[in-house]
């Protein structure tokens, strides 16, 4: 992962976007309350504008808020932008979302869903379409392969492959391959397709999106490994200290979007489709229990491999605590009302 000093984050990242990132709870020139909303930048800026602006336009109209988008260059920027109150809400995947809760005073209020209603997505490893590499070849660790990992805070690009594949096989990627490069999903796809990398991590959502945007590029890569379990969907997070009135406006927008009757609902779904989304359901911080369990299990495996008795005991206790929390949570059944009382209530699940 690219390492950012605090000074670089504050002056470089926020300085570059500072023209639009004005403070929240302060009216804009037009008298509207301002919310800076962050999204991970995985495409060229113009492509991002084309994809997201219809959604942000609807958010502005329905909430009455001045919504300023901030396209963060990586996961660290997402977290730090919220931590230093440069953004008040944003779109997060699992590991950076968990960090936003821990470090940036964030709070989950909605979870994303896919157009087909999938419960989650999968971590994968891809190779060039004509490659004869298998996952066993990848795990040989003969330092002959150039391998691509995701950002260190990427759930599907780094954490899931470590948890499900490399750690159980006692494989350390940094010493296993000839080179290990860390990049975003889009860059890894391009690198594998062009033969720069022999194999790389990715996720099923990125491939679905690629199929619709660039089917020729999609044909140039294939999957040789998929995580055995689905990963939780992305979440929408706002800061805990955000004005309660603004919180409710955002919550109402997200939980009703795509559910309008008739032609308007179809139009909203068409806005979501290029973003590979089907809508939103209520969520809270319990969403991260499976991710925390993955994190605790990975730390336990590392401790066991080290042979350090004290570290093993601590890791075992930490894992047991999260596991109990998951059992207790799964035993509960509860419902959250959607923003619009006319809509049927929906259950919220963390797994």
Automatic annotation (TrEMBL):
InterPro entries: PhnD (IPR005770)
Region feature (Disordered): 325-351
Gene3D superfamilies: Periplasmic binding protein-like II
Entry-linked PROSITE patterns: PROKAR_LIPOPROTEIN
GO cellular component: ATP-binding cassette (ABC) transporter complex
GO biological process: transmembrane transport
Keyword terms, alphabetized: Signal
UniProt record similarity statement: Belongs to the phosphate/phosphite/phosphonate binding protein family.
The protein's name: Phosphonates-binding periplasmic protein
Phylogenetic placement of the source organism: Bacteria, Pseudomonadati, Pseudomonadota, Alphaproteobacteria, Caulobacterales
């Amino acid at each position: 992962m690219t390492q950012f000093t605090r000074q670089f984050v504050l002056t470089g990242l926020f300085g570059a976007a500072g023209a639009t990132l004005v403070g929240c709870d302060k009216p804009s020139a037009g008298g509207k309350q301002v919310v800076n909303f962050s999204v991970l930048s995985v495409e060229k800026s113009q492509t991002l504008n084309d994809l997201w602006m219809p959604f942000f336009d609807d958010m502005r109209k329905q909430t009455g808020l001045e919504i300023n988008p901030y396209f963060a260059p990586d996961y660290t920027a997402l977290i730090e932008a919220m931590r230093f109150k440069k953004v008040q809400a944003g779109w997060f995947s699992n590991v950076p979302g968990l960090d936003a809760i821990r470090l940036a005073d964030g709070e989950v209020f909605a979870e994303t869903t896919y157009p087909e209603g999938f419960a989650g997505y999968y971590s994968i490893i891809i190779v060039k379409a004509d490659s004869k590499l298998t996952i066993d070849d990848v795990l040989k660790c003969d330092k002959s392969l150039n391998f691509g990992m995701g950002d260190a805070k990427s759930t599907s690009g780094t954490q899931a492959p470590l948890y499900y594949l490399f750690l159980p096989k006692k494989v350390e990627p940094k010493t296993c391959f000839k080179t290990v490069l860390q990049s975003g999903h889009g860059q890894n796809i391009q690198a594998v397709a062009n033969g720069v990398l022999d194999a790389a991590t990715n996720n099923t959502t990125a491939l679905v999106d690629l199929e619709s945007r660039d089917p020729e590029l999609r044909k140039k890569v294939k999957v040789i490994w998929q995580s055995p379990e689905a990963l939780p969907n992305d979440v929408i997070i706002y800061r805990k200290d955000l004005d309660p009135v603004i919180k409710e406006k955002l919550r109402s927008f997200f939980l009703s979007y795509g559910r309008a009757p008739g032609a308007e609902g179809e139009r909203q779904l068409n806005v979501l489709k290029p973003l590979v989304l089907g809508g939103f359901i209520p969520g809270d911080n319990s969403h991260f229990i499976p991710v925390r369990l993955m994190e605790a299990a990975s730390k336990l495996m590392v401790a066991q491999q080290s042979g350090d008795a004290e570290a093993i005991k601590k890791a075992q206790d930490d894992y047991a605590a999260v596991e109990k929390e998951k059992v207790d949570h799964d035993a509960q059944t509860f419902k959250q009302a959607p923003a619009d009382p006319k809509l049927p209530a929906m259950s919220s699940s963390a797994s």
